[in-house]
Amino acid sequence: MYATLSAARLRDAARASIEELEIVLVSPQPTLVVRPRLYEPNPETLTAPLDDVLKAIDVRYVQGTVETIDTRGRSVEIVSKADDRHHRLTYDRLVLATGSRLFRPPIPGLAEHGFSVDQLDEAIKLDRHLHSLAGRAASKARDTVVVAGGGFTGIEVATELPARLRRILGPDATIRVIIVERGPAIAPDMGAEPRPVIEKALRECGVESRLGVGVAALDDAGVTLSDGARIESMTVIWAAGMRAAPLTAQVPGERDNFGRLLVDRTLRVLDVDGVYATGDAAKVPCDDQGRHALMSCQHATRMGAFAGNNAAAELLGVPTSPYHQKVYVTCLDLGEAGAVFTRGWDRKVEMIGAKAKATKKEINTVWIYPPRAERAAALASADPERVTDL
Ligand SMILES: Cc1cc2nc3c(=O)[nH]c(=O)nc-3n(C[C@H](O)[C@H](O)[C@H](O)COP(=O)(O)OP(=O)(O)OC[C@H]3O[C@@H](n4cnc5c(N)ncnc54)[C@H](O)[C@@H]3O)c2cc1C
């Protein structure tokens, strides 16, 4: 979304016409899936329309999924699910912004029995399953949810669940939510300062943790852990690990362990002419201290704004701008215990409880949504130097 907006912004700024620079967005649906919110109830409501904003900025929308990329011939093959039609679109510059997917290792039973909150359809499937539990007799397996992975997503989904399950199963159900985390501490990437806040929140929400053990196998009645322990559960949510979306594999560039394409500071894929990669699909340095952008919405929006701007700049013959993101914050939802807001790469805690929760709500309901469908406002929202750096 931001790549499209910023390319259109530069086209206007350079006084180029839509004949001189045509911008096309290819996507399965003309909507933004508000992915950072998929741990919440009612996931089917967590999309925002893009058609009106695209019309307002003269961007052509093509419905479909890119199945193949021919970087030599500079074209993509698009498949439209609605009518199974295949067609080819040529490009002068391609911005690959296909995001990421949850990584599911080959653990027995995971593919068949594991739920997730990674993609819209998966979050909807989980929500339907949780509601279907109300029609079953109370049992340990019905009333227990296991969350595999105690990182950002695992914590957000786990702390949301007790209240969500109480609403579905009633106040008398003996609800248990258990995080299984292979590392020795919860929130392995969060560092020492926010961890006590998170641990207290888990206690307040009644979320248990099993640390230092992994999920070894799943079946329809529960999960077996790596130490042999068994937890009876009809609901196991996998929240451990991300990989760049599979399309990145078709671009002949170097990749990191997450499958992200290595790009330079302009977001151009190294050694591949005409291709930019951005968001969760790209690994880019974000400052001069050797740090790289993370697979996060916070980085993806700014990266997108630079990628679209730079792809357009090359074609319009104006200078490109190097991506930078000096500010890094985290705002972790902690269910009924509020939230925790940290600033900086060393994650200094700046807000907790209700105050942090209000910021999380603002981020989740305003900042990560598309701009309003009004040309000047929409284009201004994608100025790479202005896209929120918090
Ligand atoms: C539950 C959850 C909570 C999160 N919480 C946070 C948070 O609090 N803060 C934060 O910063 N980040 C958070 N994230 C991470 C954040 O959602 C991602 O980093 C961000 O969405 C990445 O943006 P993106 O545009 O690169 O990719 P995506 O948002 O994944 O978008 C990729 C788009 O490309 C489309 N696409 C994929 N393949 C193709 C194809 N072949 N052809 C055409 N279109 C294609 C997809 O349909 C999708 O619309 C969270 C993620 C999850 C799942």
Please provide a written account of the structure:
It is a single chain. With 390 residues, the chain is α/β, with parallel strands linked by helices. It folds into 2 domains: 2-96 and 243-322, FAD/NAD(P)-binding domain, CATH 3.50.50.60; 104-238, FAD/NAD(P)-binding domain (3-Layer(bba) Sandwich), CATH 3.50.50.60. 28% of the residues lie in helices and 25% in strands. It has helices at residues 2-13, 51-56, 110-113, 120-132, 140-143, 152-169, 195-205, 297-316, 353-367, 375-380, and strands spanning 24-27, 31-33, 47-49, 60-63, 65-70, 75-80, 85-90, 94-96, 100-102, 114-115, 144-148, 176-181, 207-211, 215-219, 222-225, 230-232, 235-238, 242-244, 261-262, 275-277, 282-283, 329-333, 339-343, 348-352. The strands form 9 sheets. Strands 10-17-11-12-13 form a 5-stranded parallel beta sheet. Strands 5-6-7 form a 3-stranded antiparallel beta sheet, with no helix packed on it. Strands 14-15-16 form a 3-stranded antiparallel beta sheet. The longest helix is centred in the C-terminal third of the chain and has 20 residues, at 297-316. The radius of gyration is 22 Å and the shape is globular. It binds flavin-adenine dinucleotide. Flavin-adenine dinucleotide (FAD) binds at residues 26-28, 33, 35-36, 38-39, 65-66, 97-100, 117-118, 153, 156, 245, 247, 279-281, 295-298, 300.
